[in-house]
Amino acid sequence: MVVTKQAFSQDGSVDEYILSNTNGTRLHVTNWGARVTRFIIKDGHGTERDIVPGFETYEQWQASLKIDDPYFGATIGRVAGRIHPSNNVTIANKHCELPEIQPNLVCLHGGKEGFDKKLFAVEIVSNAHPASVKFTYVSPDGEEGVPGTVELSVLFALTEDNAMHIEYAGRLVDGIESMLNPTNHTYWNLTGFSEPTIHNHVCRLAADRYMATYPDHVMVPTGELLPVSNTALDFTTMPRKYSEGLDTFDKQTVRGYDHIFAASESPVENIREVARVWSESSGLRLTVLSDQPALIMYTGNWISDELVGKYGVRYRNYAAVAFETQRFPNAVNIPEFRSQVLLHPGEIFGHRVVYKLDHI
Asked: Which of 104, 149, 324, 337 holds its CA 20 to 30 A away from the CA of 181?
């Protein structure tokens, strides 16, 4: 069997599914938040490493939320990223008020209890190579202030070339209009946290533009696309270590990379490379491929150093980096991108992303 199941909570309500391949690589995903809990792979020296952060059990995860919630490994929805203003969003011909998660009317990552906190139904799709498991959640009308009943399925597969494939499929079950823009929030430290931060990771991005933010609201996108050239956001001209740019950001507001990079202006037909990052010390390289227009690269700028995870690892600022592929954040409030996140009867929302590991 290449898919096994084990309890992740003491009461048995939360399970963890382990997908494996013939290389010994294992991907662990739980039905709580369709969340990646482990990615175990041999590095360039033959040493097995778990290269994603997380916690040993559901109970430990719940306890961690009282300290900080970096959304480790989670499926984010209905809508990933920030929406501003959150108190006057027009959907289905009515004005909707979304939860304020951050100050000044900002809704973040689906609201107070987004998809990352929901229990998904599970189907083992393939118990042969490549292993695959599908997680499905039905979000009722009005949940977190959003009209329409929406069903989202998230298919995880682990292939023989050590790639995690994720395919999202969403549909409007009931209602005249809703919105959907999920992403995956797995963080990566390619040393398995033997280096406590990703300062020495080297990154290259395909995107040569990024989305501007408001001067008085530095995390809220305006919709304007600007060139990355001659800025700290230029990972396109040549690969760069994160250490070269992290110290250039204001420590009170942004602290590091948490920017929207534009790979295109709308979804494309085929997946293409949007990011590549590698560790010279471990010899591991991660390549991200997606059919989505936006890539949010977040270097864990606000991860609390009070979080102690698997294997007793103490996390901290910059402990790992997330590559969130999606439609543009705040698109519902940006006329030129609004249609990308709206969902109507008979439409199927699609999103594909691949996180592929190999050796440098």
From this structure: 104
Catalytic residue chosen out of the listed positions 185, 201, 259, 351? 185
Task: Quote the CA–CA distance of 7 and 58 in Å, as a whole number.
Answer: 9
Among residues 16, 143, 144, 324, the one annotated as catalytic is: 324
The verdict on pTM exceeding 0.85 is yes
Q: Break the chain down into helix, strand, coil percent, rounded to 5.
A: 10, 45, 50
For residues 208 and 133, give the distance between their C-alpha atoms in angstroms, rounded to a whole number: 35
Establish whether 185 is a catalytic residue. Answer: yes
Measured from the Cβ of residue 287, the count of other Cβ atoms closer than 10 Å reads 18
Residues 95-126: tens digit of each pLDDT: 999 999 999 899 999 999 999 999 999 999 99
Could you tell me if 88 and 97 are in contact, meaning their C-beta atoms sit under 8 angstroms apart?
yes
Q: For the chain, what is the total number of helices (H) and then of strands (E)?
A: 1, 28
Amino acid type, 125: V
Catalytic-residue membership of 324: yes
Strand positions, DSSP E, 51-205: 75-76, 82-83, 89-91, 94-96, 107-108, 121-126, 131-139, 149-158, 163-174, 178-179, 183-184, 187-188, 202-205
